[in-house]
Amino acid sequence: MVAVVVIHRRTARRAVVNDGRAGSMAASAMRCRMPGRCVLVPGDAVTDGVTFAEVVRREGVTVLNIVPSVFRRLLSAVIDNDLHLPDLRQVIFGGEAIDPDDIRRWWVSSTAPRATLHSMYGITE
């Protein structure tokens, strides 16, 4: 499942991707306890980058916590379909190392030009 958490008022909106790994499960559970609403998306949306991008855009997500392997699927979908995520402000990676080529492809795509990317891999692994 993918947990999309939208925090109300002046706090950031967050989306958390849980691909079934132990590290991402803890992050997802923590964010679902925050104030706001939690939208659970079927697991097959994680493998369909277009569907996942639509959820991120529709929910107005500004902070996306994601493992790099799922990010890669999302990235391919947004590039292949010329999708944009205008509300996205931060992408936070964890659970595994990010491929520098994926970062380059992200910046060239201009999918979310105001978003900053943060690697949290290795902090608790």
From TrEMBL:
<dbReference type="InterPro" id="IPR052091">
    <property type="entry name" value="Beta-ala_Activ/Resist"/>
</dbReference>
<dbReference type="Pfam" id="PF00501">
    <property type="entry name" value="AMP-binding"/>
</dbReference>
<feature type="domain" description="AMP-dependent synthetase/ligase">
    <location>
        <begin position="36"/>
        <end position="125"/>
    </location>
</feature>
<dbReference type="GO" id="GO:0043041">
    <property type="term" value="P:amino acid activation for nonribosomal peptide biosynthetic process"/>
</dbReference>
<dbReference type="InterPro" id="IPR000873">
    <property type="entry name" value="AMP-dep_synth/lig_dom"/>
</dbReference>
<protein>
    <recommendedName>
        <fullName>AMP-dependent synthetase/ligase domain-containing protein</fullName>
    </recommendedName>
</protein>
